[in-house]
Amino acid sequence: MHTNQILKEVNNIFIDVLDQEDIVLMRNSTADDVEDWDSLTNMRLIVAIEKHFNIKFTTSEIQKFRNVGEMCDSIIEKKK
Amino acid sequence: MLFNSLQYLIFFVTVTITYFLISHRYRWVFLLIASYYFYMCWEIQYVLLIIASTISAYIAGIYIEKVQKSLFKKGILVLTLLFNAGILFVFKYYNFFNEAFSIVLYKFNILYEAPTLKLLLPIGISFYTFQVISYLIDVYRGDKEAERHFGLFAVFLAFFPKLVAGPIERAKNLLPQLHEKHEFDYKGVTDGLKLIAWGLFKKMVIADRLAVYVNQIYNNPGEYATLPIMLATVFFTYQVYCDFSGYSDIAIGSAQVLGFRLMNNFDRPYSSKSISEFWRRWHISLSTWLNDYIYTPILIRARNWGQAAIICSVSVTFLICGLWHGANWTFLIWGLLHGLMLSLEVVTKKSRKRIKKIVPKEIYDNISMLFTFSFICFAHIFFRANSVEDAVKIINIIFSFDFTNLNLSVAALSQADFFIAFLSLAILEGVQLIQSRVHIRQYIAKRGLMYRWSLYVVFVSYILFFGKAGSEFIYFQF
């Protein structure tokens, strides 16, 4: 799967979970860039992403994500 | 030796001068000796405990990194964590849990009488043990390389400014700084000294003065009516802030003079508009530790439980937070109260967002601040009360709204002291208000010589004249 496609789908998940229509994610987006993206909503986002792509992140992977891009890369890896 | 003592002044000046005179190669030796000397001024034999922790963590860190098999990695981690947490548990919690255990068994009609241990709590143990735990987990996760230099690692744990009551430092922040060569930096020295002075002001002028009032009332709650008890509770809230943040300021300022940057521990916590915000501003080194090593790991593993996941991780985290402060039911309740409020905030987030859209921002923010501050004060009743019974008594008196006796005065605190207390609190709040907009130390540094030195002389005189010297800091007991 192509990274831009993944980013688009992740973006839609963010819009849905955080209930904000104006979210535009980029590969280097972090929690500082998005309102309401905190440690709590982070878990809801992760769960939604895992469900949508039918994958499972490990605990250490989740702890290491530094931005949206790294999360997308991990999704691509798992969908190979 | 206490930060607010002549002994520390002499010690600190001597250490600083010597530190910059020695070559960088031997500085760690000097810092280590100075730090252990500092520690042994409290208790000589307990220095063996911190040495044991240092050796175990140093060896474990290297092997966790070296070993390839994940089972061995985890094994070394778990064993070393158990060893260090075990020492903390025995010295701090054994009696508490022993008693709790026997109470539970008694309910089942089993008589359990294990002997209690008569152990003194080694000073600083809660702080440096948490530092060890964070180091080991960071190495295990691959977030930090294991430290190979034993001397530097020992200083990392024992560094005297933060040894006794934090901040709880991270390896990522402090270890690299220990490797660097520090030049004498005039600005660092002056900024550090200003911070130390500010900390001494908070501790000696405000905290110790308010403590007189608080102690009189909280040690005999039954004898007082609603108003003095409410005042004592608010006073305590300021006392504990000034005491602990004052200590942190002296610690951070001392380190700054030596050229080290320790992490910030407080950020105007009582201006918080929610308890979630409060924990980003209060005892930051502890709250970030709890977040990184307890809260987030639990939340990640429980992420599929929905709302229950958050309730679970928040409860466990604040249980630990409460207990960390002391082996007492009062601290446990204090922690759980905060956990409860935090959970409530999470659950009501959407409805509060809706209210926020309707109500004008100024009104919403001020009411939030007032409500948050009131809750903090309320929870502090348990933090300060000598027992759960006392806390309940105090709450009953407050909510009895017994305003028949409006006499606020207390034998131990004179009218003059009251005045100084309020004046100093006004100075505190004024400075913090300015702090939110201006970097004060930089502002002062830019002023002329006359301005700066008049300010220094007035301020230091104020501390010397109105400060009470030589009293312990509250957080030493943790």
Measured distance between first and last alpha carbons of chain B: 17 Å
Greatest interface by residues involved? A-B, 9 and 13 residues
Low-confidence stretches of chain B: none
Which ranges of chain A are low-confidence, i.e. pLDDT below 50, for 5 or more consecutive residues?
none
How many strands of chain B? 0
Individual helix count of chain A: 4
Strand content of chain B: under 5%
Task: Spell out the helices and strands of chain B N to C.
Answer: HHHHHHHHHHHHHHHHHHHH
Structural class of chain A: mainly alpha
Oligomer classification = heterodimer
Mean pLDDT of chain B: 91
Order of helical and strand elements of chain A: HHHH
Rg of chain A, alpha carbons? 11 Å
SS strand fraction of chain A: under 5%
Structural class label of chain B: mainly alpha
Percent of residues in helices of chain A comes to: 55-70%
| Mean pLDDT over the full residue set of chain A | 88
Number of helical runs of chain B? Answer: 20
Largest sheet of chain B: none
Binned, the helix content of chain B reads over 70%
Biggest beta sheet attributes of chain A: none
Give your account of this protein's structure.
The complex is a heterodimer of chains A (80) and B (478). Chain A is mostly helical and 80 residues long. Chain A is built from 4 helices and no strands. Chain A has helices spanning 3-18, 39-53, 59-64, 68-79. In chain A, helix 1 packs across helix 4. The longest helix of chain A is centred in the N-terminal third of the chain and has 16 residues, at 3-18. Chain A is globular. Chain B is globular, with a radius of gyration of 24 Å. Chain B is mainly alpha-helical. The mean pLDDT of chain B is 91. Chain B starts with 5 loop residues before the first helix and ends in a 12-residue tail after the last helix. In chain B, 73% of the residues lie in helices and 0% in strands.
